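Quick one:
INPUT:
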């Protein structure tokens, strides 16, 4: 298969109507985008690994110096309270950094190891109300009202329940994290398009996304949060693609964000 973009334009000439249909092979554009994503991904990976490894190496090296005097190992008598304290603190820090890196690698694995989808018919109402139940504590804690609208109410999708729930958890989490004032709203809106496709939108009243980073939010490990791992949206995108669907984002700075899931 080759990816093509199709454009249809209508025009009139000498009172006759014409339809101009253009097909364009966009494979090279896609490859270029993919390459760019790879470069960004590698930048994030190396940044994260360096951030953990550099302090580990420099700490280990300064700890080592505590035990060496004029190029010889110190003897037991030279070990005092101060050396023990410094060593213990240093080892704790090294452990922490190492654990951070292991966490990071495990997160990476969760992106790379999505398994076979297990499709079943799912009632959208059941799915969304379950999500509300699951997130209720977090939502009330943050003073956020969740509104659910489903039209028609018996709307169904063909999806892998576990993975789709994962998508919603990630999206709702993002919305909660984007809302800082006390009167936040998150809307879950499900409907059918004229060509019978199901759309589920999640809209928040959060701080929005800066237009300059809009093209990066789906890249694995891209995050603007101090403690974010940048996994949520890229995982959601992969899962939607495996459902034969897609995910898009619209945002207005300081007004909110709408994430659209197309099934
Ligand atoms: N609803 C939203 N409102 C504002 N910004 C958002 C929203 N959703 C995503 N973003 C932006 O997109 C970035 C990537 O989101 P993603 O969920 O992939 O990672 P994360 O939330 O930073 O970390 P993680 O999900 O792994 O904890 C976020 O850091 C944030 O800048
Ligand atoms: Mg997230």
């Amino acid at each position: 298969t080759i990816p093509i973009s199709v454009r249809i334009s209508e025009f009139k000439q000498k009172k006759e109507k014409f339809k101009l249909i253009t097909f364009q092979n966009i494979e090279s554009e896609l490859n270029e985008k993919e390459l760019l994503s790879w470069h960004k991904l590698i930048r994030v990976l190396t940044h994260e690994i360096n951030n953990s490894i550099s302090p580990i190496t420099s700490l280990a090296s300064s700890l080592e110096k505590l035990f060496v005097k004029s190029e010889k190992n110190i003897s037991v008598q030279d070990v005092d309270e101060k050396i023990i304290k410094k060593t213990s603190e240093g080892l704790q820090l090294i452990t922490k950094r190492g654990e951070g890196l292991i966490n990071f690698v495990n997160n990476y694995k969760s992106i790379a190891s999505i398994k076979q989808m297990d499709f079943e018919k799912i009632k959208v109402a059941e799915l969304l109300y379950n999500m509300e139940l699951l997130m209720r504590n977090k939502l009330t804690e943050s003073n956020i009202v969740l509104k659910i609208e489903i039209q028609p109410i018996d709307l169904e999708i063909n999806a892998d329940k576990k993975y789709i729930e994962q998508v919603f958890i990630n999206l709702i989490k993002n919305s909660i994290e984007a809302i800082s004032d006390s009167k936040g709203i998150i809307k879950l809106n499900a409907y059918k398009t004229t060509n019978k496709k199901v759309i589920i939108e999640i809209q928040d009243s959060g701080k929005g996304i800066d237009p300059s980073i809009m093209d990066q939010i789906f890249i694995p490990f891209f995050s603007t949060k101090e403690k974010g791992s940048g996994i949520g949206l890229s995982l959601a995108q992969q899962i939607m693609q495996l459902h034969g669907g897609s995910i898009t984002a619209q945002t207005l700075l300081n007004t909110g964000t709408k994430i659209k899931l197309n099934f």
